[in-house]
Design a protein that fits this description.
The protein contains eleven helices and 13 strands. By secondary structure, it is of the alpha+beta class. α1 packs across α2.
Length: 305
């Protein structure tokens, strides 16, 4: 188990930048947009503008990659997690105790080969959501493999899972100690896996990812995915993606600056432009999520049994 609290305390104590950014995040204005049985939280967070507008078409080498150890922000402390990953406090947090889990090696973003490590991270950080953004799914650094984590309380979807299952499940499959649900809540279409069995969990995650690859005829799934391990129970949410950015991002008038990643789909939307924070409506959220999430036709074809 990782001593996250003490690690974050050491980082914030040693760097005014990290202290200031975490304090600003904790004091940021919040707006809740209610739907039927669930909600999204808008967070006024100007520091996220670089992430929202990142040019992912450029692939820097290790000398310019900000996730490579040699290029970390001045004062950023690496935590030696294991031979494959180190952990750093995220300098631009969106949630409580926001961490970045970074590959020791400079390699492209990809989840298929590290599902076992993804599950292990959840085991090592109970009460935290470990999450992954695909290369065209909100990851601002798709050129260097990384995941993120923050306290589950920061991501509304986990408090709403039971309500969403009850109101919006369109298909489900039950196995010996695992349940899989397809949910369409009128904004998002996504998969939920719940189990107490670690070995079954890895099997079902890999199975769903292979099914997504089959639907999209791809070899590496474009997904946002998060896992929470709490009280001996695993909950996984998988959001297959159709688009990186919605049409609202490219408008010349009434532009909404957004590149939805896992946090957005999990109900916490960091908003970097003040006018957007006050103007984003239920209809805007529905439009954005419907565009970036998997289409109904593909979702219906996705086999979970």
């Amino acid at each position: 188990m990782i001593e996250i609290e003490s690690f974050i305390y050491r980082q914030l104590e040693s760097s005014p930048l990290f202290y200031t950014n975490f304090n600003n995040m904790r004091l940021s204005a919040l707006r809740t947009v209610q739907f039927n049985g669930f909600s999204y939280t808008l967070q006024m967070n100007p520091a996220r503008i670089q992430s929202a507008t990142a040019d992912i078409s450029k692939k820097p080498d290790t000398s310019r990659c900000f996730l490579c150890r040699a290029n970390l922000i001045q004062g950023q402390i690496p935590y030696e997690y294991n031979d494959d990953f180190f952990i750093a406090v995220n300098p631009f947090p969106i949630g409580e105790n926001h961490l970045t889990i970074i590959s020791q090696r400079h390699q492209d973003q990809g989840i298929m080969k590290i599902v076992d490590k993804f599950v292990q991270m959840a085991d090592d950080m109970p009460g935290y959501v470990v999450f992954y953004n695909g290369p065209k799914c909100g990851a601002s650094a798709p050129f260097h493999l990384h995941l993120q984590a923050c306290k589950a309380v920061s991501l509304p979807v986990f408090a709403q899972i039971e309500s969403l299952k009850r109101l919006y499940t369109i298909d489900s499959a039950e196995f010996s100690s695992t349940n899989v649900y397809k949910i369409d809540d009128t904004t998002r279409r996504f998969i939920v896996i719940q189990t107490i069995d670690r070995s079954q969990l890895q099997y079902h995650i890999e199975k769903i990812l292979r099914e997504i690859n089959f639907i999209y005829q791809s070899v590496e799934p474009e997904v946002n995915m998060g896992i929470l391990f709490e009280d001996g129970y695993y909950t996984v949410t998988i959001f297959p993606r159709d688009k990186h950015r919605p049409e609202e991002y490219f408008r010349t008038e009434n532009r909404i600056v957004c590149s939805p990643g896992y946090a957005d789909l999990a109900g916490m939307i960091p908003v970097s432009v003040r006018d957007n924070f006050y103007s984003i409506s239920e209809n805007d959220i529905t439009s954005i999520m419907r565009q970036v999430c998997i289409s109904l036709e593909k979702f219906n074809a996705l086999n979970i049994s």
